[in-house]
Amino acid sequence: MTILLTDVAASEALGARLAGLVRVGDVVTLSGPLGAGKTSIARGLLAALGLEGEAPSPSFAIVQPYEPPEVALPVLHVDLYRIESVAEIDELGLDEARGDAVLVIEWPERAPGRWPDAFALTLAVTADGARSLTANVPAPWKDRWFQT
C-alpha cells in the first residue's frame, strides 16, 4: 500500500497515527534517502506520545531513548546510518531492549533481515517534492494498520 505525504506536516501526522497503534515490543523501520522524511515521522510519533519540544535526530547518538513520563511508552529512536558492521548493531543491545520499548529504526538496510516482523515504511521523493510512502504490513500489524 502506498500513501502520498505532501509535506512535513503530513509526515508528522502519519507518525502521530502510528503513536496510537504502537505497542511495547514493536519495531517500526523507516527507509529512504537522506531528507525523505524519516525523522519527521519519528518526531510525529514521539510528539503524539507526549514528548514536548522537538526530538533531535539520533544521527550522532545512534540511539536516543525516551521513557515515561516524558512519553507514554518507552521508545528507542535509532539511526543506523553511521553503523558500519553487524557487530556494532549487536553492541547496541536493541534485541534485548525490544522487549521493554518500541523501536523506531531509521536506515534499517544497514541490518538487512534483522527485524523481519517490523512494520516497514519506505519513503521515496516524488518529482514534485512530495513523499511516497510504502508500508510493508506484517501479520502482527494487520489488525492495527489502516490506510487512509
UniProtKB/TrEMBL annotation:
GO biological process: tRNA threonylcarbamoyladenosine modification
Cellular compartments annotated: Cytoplasm
Keyword tRNA processing: yes
Cellular component GO terms, alphabetical: cytoplasm
Keywords: ATP-binding, Cytoplasm, Magnesium, Metal-binding, Nucleotide-binding, tRNA processing
Location (main, coarse): cytoplasm
Gene3D superfamilies: P-loop containing nucleotide triphosphate hydrolases
InterPro entries referenced in this protein's UniProt entry, alphabetically: P-loop_NTPase, T6A_TsaE
Keyword Cytoplasm: yes
Domain of life where this protein originates: Bacteria
Entry GO MF terms: ATP binding; metal ion binding
Similarity-based family: Belongs to the TsaE family.
Protein known as: tRNA threonylcarbamoyladenosine biosynthesis protein TsaE
Species lineage: Bacteria, Pseudomonadati, Pseudomonadota, Alphaproteobacteria, Sphingomonadales
